[in-house]
Amino acid sequence: MATATARRSEEKRTTAPADAGEVLHARLCAAVSLVSTAVHLWIAVMDLHGWWSSALMVGMAAICMPCALRLWGGGAARSARMLMFAALAMVAFHGYSIVHSGPAGHAVHQLAGGTDAPAGGTAVMLGVMALEWMSALLAASWLRRIRRSRPLAHSAGS
After folding, report:
1. Residues contacting 96, CB < 8 A, separation 6+
2. What sign does the dihedral 79-83-89-90 (CA atoms) show?
3. Which of 67, 100, 139, 156 could crosslink 84 through cysteines, CB 3.0-4.6 Å?
C-alpha cells in the first residue's frame, strides 16, 4: 500500500505541469478528448449503429473520460499515454470501417446488421477521426514537452 501511494505521489510530482504553457497544452488535449467522448456518447444514445456498437462507444467513453479529466486537473503522463493510445486505436478502427465500407458509408452498419448508413456517414466518421487524431497528437506533444522540460524526472522510469 505504501508503495502504491509513493508511486502515485511520485508520478504527480514528476509530471504535474510546471508552467502556464504546459497547463494550457494539457487542458487543450483534455478538452479535445472530452469533445470526442461526448460525440461518441451522443452517437451511442442515437443508436445509429446497433446495440453492440453503442455498447463499445459507451465503453470507450468510460475509459477515456477519467483520463481526460485527470489530464485537465493537473496532468499525468499515464493518463496522456492512455488517451494517445485509445485515440490511435479509434483512428485505426474508424479507418478500417471506412475502407471496408463500400458504397454504404461505413461498414459498422453492415456488421451490426442495420440498415444502410446515413448519407453523410463517411463525412461524420472522418470528422470523428480528425478529433481522434487531434487528441493523439496533443497527448503525444504534451508528453514530449514535459519530457524535454524535466528530463531527469522522466529518466527515473515514469
Report:
1. 107
2. positive
3. 139
